[in-house]
Design a protein that fits this description.
By secondary structure, the chain is of the alpha+beta class. It is built from five helices and eight strands. Bound molecules: coenzyme A.
Length: 198
């Protein structure tokens, strides 16, 4: 049974799930859309990239498992716990992934994560996708705070966060394990009303 809340929820339960997961547009013809079963091969292939393997320790083992993950993403939307989008060129070619997780509707907070396929990197895909996600999440969707963390050694991810208006709030010492051991993690956040910094 759901506990009684002594404050108003930032987003009343059921609000997000009342509509399908939205498609979000970003400059340069990017369209963020829910994953489709036919994306399984490219999604699996992404995890062959050494950088994605290094920074994302949870990896799918097969296309079947990827499709199970896609099912889990759909369920997460209906349960209002998370959402994952394919970052695409106009809805077709998949360029990357962006996701929200750990949604807390009472407080209006959620975490963000992303990767971009090697061939699409360095063209502003991640930062444009993260900005579009933030504008929707902190606007129409009603979230108050989005946070993300990355290893202090992942300079590209740090730059993406800053370009999308996520201020650096501090360093979480020894907070995560990557393929070469424990890493200190930067915590960044963007809050409703923060001005876009870049
Ligand atoms: C991090 C990642 C998502 C960036 O995607 P992207 O689409 O190339 O990002 P953008 O083009 O929007 O921005 C990248 C920025 O990082 C900078 N950058 C790239 N490599 C860098 C490096 N080694 N050191 C410093 N900055 C770097 C780029 O110059 C660019 O900044 P600029 O626009 O000011 O020049 C992509 O490299 C990736 O998927 N890496 C592997 C997985 C990963 O790290 N995921 C994030 C885990 S927290």
């Amino acid at each position: 049974m759901r506990a009684i809340l002594s404050t108003q929820p930032a987003i009343p339960a059921g609000t997000l799930a009342a509509s399908p997961q939205p498609m979000l547009r970003a400059p340069g013809g990017l369209l963020l859309r829910p994953w489709e079963p036919s994306d399984a091969a490219v999604f699996l292939a992404a995890y062959q990239d050494p950088d994605i393997q290094h920074w994302h320790t949870r990896q799918p083992a097969s296309e079947d498992q990827v499709r199970e993950w896609f099912d889990h993403y759909r369920k997460a939307w209906t349960q209002e716990t998370g959402a994952s989008w394919a970052v695409t060129r106009g809805g077709g070619q998949v360029l990357g992934r962006i996701a929200m997780g750990g949604m807390n509707l009472d407080d209006g907070v959620a975490g963000c994560a992303y990767w971009v396929l090697p061939a699409a990197r360095g063209a502003g895909v991640a930062s444009r996708a993260l900005t579009a996600l933030s504008v929707w999440a902190l606007g129409e969707a009603g979230f108050h705070r989005l946070h993300l963390d990355h290893s202090t050694r992942n300079l590209a991810s740090c730059r993406v966060a800053v370009k999308a208006g996520f201020l650096l709030e501090g360093t979480k010492r020894s907070d995560a394990v990557h393929s070469d051991g424990r890493h200190d993690m930067h915590l960044h956040a963007r809050i409703r009303g923060d001005k876009q910094l870049a």
